[in-house]
Amino acid sequence: MDYQEFNTSSGAEGAILVGVVSDAEKYEDAESALSELEALCDTAGVKVLAALTQVRRSADPSTVIGSGKLRELYELCENLQAGLVIFDEELSPAQVVHLEKELPKEVRVIDRSVLILDIFANNAHTAEGMLQVEIAQLKYSVPRLTGRGKELSRLGGGIGTRGPGESKLETDKRHVKRRIAALEQKLEALAASRDLRRGARKAGGKKQVTIAGYTNAGKSTLLNTLTNADILARDQLFATLDPTTRKLVLPHKTEVLLTDTVGFIDRLPHHLIEAFASTLDEVAYADLLLVVLDASDPNLERQLSVTRNLVYELGKTRKVLSPKTIFVYNKCDKLSGELILAPQDRQNSVQISAVTGFGIGELLQRMEAVLREDLRLCTLRFALSEESSVDLLYRKASVIDARHDENGVTLHAYLEPALTGRFADHIIG
Ligand SMILES: Nc1nc2c(ncn2[C@@H]2O[C@H](COP(=O)(O)OP(=O)(O)OP(=O)(O)O)[C@@H](O)[C@H]2O)c(=O)[nH]1
Ligand SMILES: [Mg+2]
Q1: How many distinct helices (H) and strands (E) make up the chain?
Q2: Which of 120, 54, 136 lies closest to 87, judged by CA?
């Protein structure tokens, strides 16, 4: 058997957070990096007892932090009766072993990636989502199984040991790898049907607009506001894992399909990016990307650069150019003054509040304008007998108006370059 069932411990686990900065000047960054780790803990149901930062030029290869800090950490663990120590940077398997040896016996050491994987495991509800998370968790665990059999088997549950099926990892690498292969096969079948659906949507002629951005930026709230959808939006990281698509009609009647998708975060574990490939295709293959940013976040700059980099990397892996993008600065209702953007960030940006509706009208107009950039507004004429061509036009193009008379119909429509050839005989202006 690959897995053993166990009961997840209930109630909040008490944790101490540890962050290391390589440069004293970046001290403020470490503080804010730990505040993000704190938000991750909050979402995962971990109680944060204390946070410890060390400024160090280079991490100690075996224990990351220096021996003095380690002693301080030991005492904090004892005094606060912590069960968990969470490092903000990824730990090597050997570092975990060393750190656990140096800390009180009951203390487990995990890193940011484990915490993120755990949140994904908790929030995955669909078959595809659960498969994706389990694959990422197993892949993360493979290099960490060697020599850690005892530690893993004594964990018995809690953060970092929860899977979609609340199963415990088997310590045999070969078994885990076999399980990964089997799960990947299942996922491939699901991903193939997602690709088919996306292909069908594209063939249907409607533009694909994808909402992407940092976790908790308000992506799902925006989809709800724009389409009256009723999807889960809450003050929690990674509330959305599975894409939701809804139809939206823009002010000048362009019909688009709007998709909300999984959020990004700084140092998103790469196994998750790989496992969520088919979900993230919604970002790479969109006709238009709405990058939602939380304008009230003091780390807006970092949010923007993490998101830009991820979008760029997704396109590069799939060998496609990044889609046309509008930067949507959300939560402007939370700002006391106006949001001042650097000149290079002002381009293609709209300021909104998905909650109050501020700026939504401008966003819709901007979306339509960007989508129509390569379109040509044409006047077309069809005879009564050409009903099927008119149907085709309605399916493939964005028809603005139609005037019927006894001999046929005259329409105004936005046509893509490829379609102007196809309807050349009907274009009269
Ligand atoms: N004040 C204010 N709060 C907002 C706004 N938009 C979203 N929120 C809040 O921000 C929180 C996160 O919103 P979501 O829509 O779930 O964010 P998301 O980007 O979908 O997040 P994930 O799916 O978790 O990645 C919720 O508590 C929303 O109510 C806004 O314009 N103003
Ligand atoms: Mg969401």
Answers
A1: 15, 15
A2: 54
Q: Is 237 in the pocket of ligand 1 (CB under 6 A)?
A: yes
Alpha helices (H) in 259-385, listed in sequence order: 270-275, 277-284, 300-317, 343-346, 360-371
- Report the alpha-carbon distance of residue 207 to residue 93 in Å, rounded: 46
pLDDT at 217: 97
Tokens of 213: 């951005």
Which residue reads 């599975």 in tokens?
Answer: 242
Of the listed ligands, the closest to the CA of 335 is: 1
Q: Is 215 in the pocket of ligand 1 (CB under 6 A)?
A: yes
Measured by CA distance, the residue closest to atom 23 of ligand 1 is: 240
**Whether pLDDT at 167 is above 60:** no
pLDDT digits (tens, 9 = 90+) for 5-36: 223 344 457 999 998 877 665 556 666 768 89
Q: Which helix (H) or strand (E) holds 290?
A: strand 288-294
* H-helix segments, 103-232: 112-123, 127-141, 149-155, 173-203, 219-227
pTM, entire model: 0.82
Task: Convert the pLDDT of each residue in 413-423 to its tens digit.
Answer: 888 888 888 99
Q: State the burial class of residue 265 (Cβ atoms within 10 Å of its Cβ: 0-12, 13-18, 19+).
A: buried
- Residue partners of 312: CB distance under 8 A and separation at least 6: 322
